[in-house]
């Protein structure tokens, strides 16, 4: 290569032409590159901010900083969605560990729970997303393989039973272990939460979860202003950013204040039982003590805190 | 060799290192017409990928065909394959350094440069798979929150970046020394070479652990995964290098001996059979046992409840690998170059299908609640994937473009000075 250069014609002219061509090529390339990345520039200027970019992990925020962050998020919701909302962070109560039980004998598969979840948690409207999937199962089998979540006919069908599945708030949550950035963790009351402003969106947790409990925000959620639930928790139902993972939090913005989860309130048959596992007088403790309960995929050792039982 | 000249020309690193870098820049922007054509083509493809990625960042990953059911797709499939390719280069390093195969030593840099290009692609595929690439800094130890040692993904961050640095150091050091016309000091590269051998095994083992440690995904949850990854990596790596050597020899006019090609062919002969054996072993265990745990394997090999998207692919892969294995069994296959290239290409594509889409997608079909949602990549995903491949080939081409003249002593401090004087 160096030989070929040395035998070429007048060096000055050659260098000039080559350099000129190279410069033209480089300019063209740089222009094309700028054009190619333009959508990112657009996104960065509209959908994110320096304070969001630099925001610390939830556990590293001081009370003051957290208040500021929540205030900023309220402002953003007003700006982008046109809704007045109030975002707060209620901490777990001492001596409380949440448990959930579901009576498969009386669940009729109406999916009111999934609908309530959709509204309560400000899910993207067009995708009809919800943290609950209700499986229609063949009587005589607990094998999930016989389940179908896409049924579209009157319920209950005589030869079927119905099994709603949502986050099992495992005591050994594989999703928490795999997260490379500690964006998800188990709180003292047993609820597994996600810091939506720390999650990098790698979806490893979604691959690790054996219960299909996690959802990804494939787009920026769209919710009309009048449908937005204004009572929002920082770690639960506030409108999530695009590109992060979300999941059921047992409606911690309600349950930590002594209310019941939205899915339970919506259930017309009373199939759902929620409460404090550490309180021997709670209804959930009564169910665990007196009914033959089981958990999903017990063999995986995830130790779900969501229990199923039959009562007839 | 130029060592004799060095005494008089040795000067401070502060002077020669910038000059070395400058030569590298010069070399990488200079070449015959087909070099420009090739680089222009790659740049164009790369830019198509960059644009598709920019749109994905703006509009969200809904532009892909991934869903909450199949939450990893073409990107992670290619990532997994590229980790294997990066590890595969070690099949040149082992003969060259552990068994003092001199002819292999002459060309071993090809394997190291391949590792660099492949790791760059791995990092690219991880980056484009992130929903929030703006938050990648959360992954940096010390600055973000690094969930080490429990998250296997943090191990992967360490081993992949470590492998990249090791190979950059080894190749960079050797080239720089050669540029200065000096004999490389063993203590500055040999320990790193030995470390890189173990490290190569580790990058693919850790990547397998990423998947096989997930109890909720029975398709991945097998102890055979890491050995299978390594075996197929030692097929795809040598296959790529053999073809690259033949191209470099013809296009670049670089004298590359027959011995390294023969050695690599011999390695592939064995590793491709081990690879196929492991496929058979896996298939037997799954299907003889039966039960609902094999639904994914059923989906992959035979289709499940009327869903067949991957069936033609996986059988194409098995067909290609088998054919390649048979061709490679021919005693003097390396003497018949078209046949050898055919075998390498078949093996390479076969592994790409098997370890890419064939490994990632079935783990999600059926989903953990046994729902069946199929996945085929969207146009955006293909564009981004092609863009990253173009980037990788660009890195590899430029690395060769800079290294070969320096290694063949067409470019050294002494010569370039002489020419300028």
Automatic annotation (TrEMBL), chain A:
Transmembrane segments: none annotated. InterPro entries: 4Fe4S_Fe-S-bd, 4Fe4S_Fe_S_CS, ET_IronSulfur_Cluster-Binding, TAT_signal. Keywords: 4Fe-4S, Iron, Iron-sulfur, Metal-binding. Residues 98-128, 190-219 form the 4Fe-4S ferredoxin-type domain. SUPFAM superfamilies: 4Fe-4S ferredoxins (SSF54862). GO terms for molecular function: 4 iron, 4 sulfur cluster binding; metal ion binding. Gene3D superfamilies: 3.30.70.20. It comes from the Bacteria. This is 4Fe-4S dicluster domain-containing protein. It comes from Aeoliella straminimaris. The lineage of its organism: Bacteria, Pseudomonadati, Planctomycetota, Planctomycetia, Pirellulales.
From TrEMBL, chain B:
It holds the Pfam family NrfD. Signal peptide: none annotated. It comes from the Bacteria. Keywords: Cell membrane, Membrane, Transmembrane, Transmembrane helix. It is found in: Cell membrane. Coiled coil: none annotated. The chain crosses the membrane at residues 33-54, 74-100, 107-128, 148-176, 188-209, 229-248, 269-288, 308-328, 340-364, 384-407. It is a multi-pass membrane protein. This is Polysulfide reductase NrfD. Belongs to the NrfD family. The keyword Hydrolase does not apply. One of its GO terms (cellular component) is plasma membrane. Its main location: membrane. InterPro entries: DsrP-like (IPR054823), NrfD-like (IPR005614).
């Amino acid at each position: 290569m160096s030989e070929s250069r040395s035998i070429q014609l007048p060096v000055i002219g050659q260098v000039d032409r080559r350099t000129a061509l190279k410069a033209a090529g480089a300019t063209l390339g740089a222009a094309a590159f700028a054009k190619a990345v333009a959508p990112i520039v657009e996104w960065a200027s509209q959908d994110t901010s320096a304070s969001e970019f630099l925001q610390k992990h939830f556990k590293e925020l001081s009370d003051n900083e957290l208040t500021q962050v929540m205030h900023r998020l309220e402002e953003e919701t007003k700006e982008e969605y046109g809704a007045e909302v109030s975002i707060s962070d209620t901490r777990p109560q001492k001596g409380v560990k949440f448990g959930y039980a579901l009576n498969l004998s009386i669940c009729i598969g109406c999916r009111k729970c999934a609908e309530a979840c959709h509204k309560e948690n400000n899910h993207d409207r067009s995708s009809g997303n919800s943290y609950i999937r209700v499986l229609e199962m063949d009587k005589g089998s607990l094998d999930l393989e016989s389940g179908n979540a896409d049924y579209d006919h009157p319920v209950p069908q005589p030869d079927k039973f119905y099994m709603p599945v949502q986050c099992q708030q495992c005591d050994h949550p594989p999703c928490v272990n795999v997260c490379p950035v500690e964006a998800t963790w188990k709180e003292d009351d047993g609820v597994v939460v996600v810091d939506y402003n720390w999650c990098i969106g790698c979806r490893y947790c979604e691959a690790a979860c054996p219960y299909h409990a996690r959802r990804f925000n494939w787009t920026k959620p769209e919710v009309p202003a009048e449908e937005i639930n204004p009572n929002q928790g920082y770690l639960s139902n506030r409108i999530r950013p695009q590109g992060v993972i979300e999941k059921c939090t047992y409606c911690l913005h309600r349950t930590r204040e002594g209310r019941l989860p939205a899915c339970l309130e919506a259930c017309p048959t009373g199939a759902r039982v929620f409460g404090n596992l550490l309180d021997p007088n709670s209804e959930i403790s009564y169910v665990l003590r007196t009914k033959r309960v089981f958990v999903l995929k017990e063999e995986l050792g995830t130790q779900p805190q969501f229990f199923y039982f039959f009562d007839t | 060799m130029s060592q004799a000249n060095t005494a008089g020309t040795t000067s401070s690193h502060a002077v020669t290192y910038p000059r070395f870098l400058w030569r590298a820049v010069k070399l990488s922007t200079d070449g015959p017409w087909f070099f420009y054509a090739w680089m222009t083509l790659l740049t164009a493809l790369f830019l198509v990928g960059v644009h598709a990625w920019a749109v994905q960042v703006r509009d969200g990953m809904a532009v892909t065909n991934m869903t909450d059911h199949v939450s990893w797709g073409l990107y992670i499939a290619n990532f997994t394959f590229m980790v294997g390719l990066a590890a595969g280069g070690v099949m040149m390093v082992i003969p060259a350094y552990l068994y003092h195969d001199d002819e292999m030593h002459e060309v071993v840099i090809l394997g190291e440069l391949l590792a660099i290009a492949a790791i760059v692609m791995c990092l690219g595929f991880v980056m484009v798979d992130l929903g929030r690439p703006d938050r990648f800094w959360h992954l940096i130890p010390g600055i973000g929150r690094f969930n080490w040692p429990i998250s296997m993904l943090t191990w992967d961050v360490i081993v992949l970046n470590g492998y990249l640095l090791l190979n950059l150091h080894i190749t960079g050091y050797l080239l720089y020394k050669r540029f200065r016309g000096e004999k490389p000091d063993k203590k500055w590269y040999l320990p790193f070479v030995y470390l890189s051998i173990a490290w190569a095994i580790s990058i693919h083992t850790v990547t397998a652990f990423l998947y096989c440690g997930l109890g909720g995904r029975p398709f991945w949850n097998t102890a055979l995964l890491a050995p299978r990854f390594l075996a197929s990596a030692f097929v795809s790596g040598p296959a790529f290098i053999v073809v690259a050597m033949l191209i470099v020899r013809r296009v670049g006019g670089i004298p590359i001996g027959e011995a390294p090609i023969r050695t690599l062919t011999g390695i592939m002969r064995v590793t491709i059979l081990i690879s196929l054996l492991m496929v058979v072993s896996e298939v037997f265990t799954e299907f003889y046992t039966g039960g609902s745990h094999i639904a994914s394997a059923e989906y992959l090999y035979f289709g499940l409840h009327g869903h067949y998207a991957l069936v033609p692919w996986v059988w194409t892969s098995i067909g290609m690998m088998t054919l390649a294995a048979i061709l490679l069994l021919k005693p003097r296959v390396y003497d018949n170059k078209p046949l050898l290239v055919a075998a390498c290409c078949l093996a390479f594509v076969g592994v790409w299908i098997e370890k890419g889409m064939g490994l990632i997608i079935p783990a999600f079909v059926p989903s953990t609640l046994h729902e069946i949602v199929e996945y085929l990549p969207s146009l955006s995903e293909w564009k981004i994937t092609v863009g990253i491949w173009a980037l990788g080939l660009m890195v590899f081409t430029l690395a060769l473009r800079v290294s070969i003249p320096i290694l063949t002593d067409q470019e050294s401090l002494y010569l370039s000075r002489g020419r300028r004087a």
